[in-house]
Amino acid sequence: MDVLDALLAEIKGKAPGEPVSSEADLCARHGVARMTARRAIGIARERGLIETRWGKGSFVAPAAGSGSAGDGQADA
After folding, report:
1. Is 74 left (phi over 0), alpha (psi -120 to 50) or beta?
2. Each residue of 29-74: pLDDT tens digit?
């Protein structure tokens, strides 16, 4: 399972407004570079699944927690 798949699974299991893993958390948990974690978060944000608030972190977007987390086809 790659970082993006893990992040999508995390999002799917949370309610809207709940925080998701930070870049640092994803790096530590999956042993990847910060750029890889940043890319996974960026893809989830582009898909409308998370919202990032400057200085606060990333959170499940409204309607993303219970819906489809995408097809997971992108690499990250």
Report:
1. beta
2. 999 999 999 999 999 999 999 999 999 999 999 976 554 444 444 4
pLDDT at 24 exceeding the cut of 60 = yes
Reported for 55-62, long-range contacts at CB under 8 A and 24+ positions apart, including other chains, are: 57/19, 57/20, 57/22, 58/19, 58/20, 58/21, 58/22, 59/16, 59/17, 59/18, 59/19, 59/20, 60/11, 60/14, 60/15, 60/16, 60/17, 60/18, 60/19, 60/20, 61/16, 62/16, 62/17
